[in-house]
Design the sequence.
């Protein structure tokens, strides 16, 4: 991990740099339609970004992570969705993404969240405790890539729905 990497909440002045990082991170991703930066902007405008953190190194934003509330069977059960996680390609594989995920999960726990879901690589997110669950599903998504992490012991069953802004970028 980079020494002196600073993880902090986004500030209004960071929005342009966040957009650049997200665009660069997803530019060549084959599973992306390269609109993740628009999604974050739409979530921000809808005041639906529950948690938005940046990774800053030498006063430069090199990573970003966003979390927004999700509904389970159309109810708020205290769960959040992680999306997207972006690290500038020049800084990938140096622990920036790991630091962002760890800080984000810690912040969600401080918000008394019940859990978090993510659509992503099970090998990557598995290291944080995320796992596929027969109890949580996301429409039209292979179960192996829709992962959950419970912070509280009560069982949650149902279909997860992200904020309406996500529908614009599916």
Sequence:
């Amino acid at each position: 991990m980079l020494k002196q990497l600073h993880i902090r909440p986004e500030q209004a002045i960071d929005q342009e740099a966040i957009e650049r990082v997200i665009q660069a991170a997803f530019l060549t991703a084959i599973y992306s339609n390269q609109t993740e930066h628009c999604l974050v902007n739409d979530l921000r405008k809808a005041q639906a970004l529950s948690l938005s953190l940046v990774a800053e190194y030498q006063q430069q934003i090199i990573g970003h992570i966003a979390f927004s509330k999700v509904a389970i069977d159309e109810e708020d059960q205290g769960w959040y969705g992680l999306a997207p996680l972006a690290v500038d390609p020049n800084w990938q594989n140096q622990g920036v993404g790991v630091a962002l995920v760890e800080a984000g999960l810690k912040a969600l726990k401080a918000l008394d969240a019940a859990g978090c879901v993510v659509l992503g690589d099970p090998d990557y997110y598995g290291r944080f405790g995320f796992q596929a669950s027969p109890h949580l599903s996301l429409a039209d998504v292979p179960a192996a890539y829709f992962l959950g992490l419970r912070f509280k012991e009560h069982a949650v069953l149902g279909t997860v729905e992200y904020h309406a802004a996500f529908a614009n970028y599916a």
Summary: The first strand starts at residue 6 and ends at 9. The two ends are 33 Å apart (CA to CA).
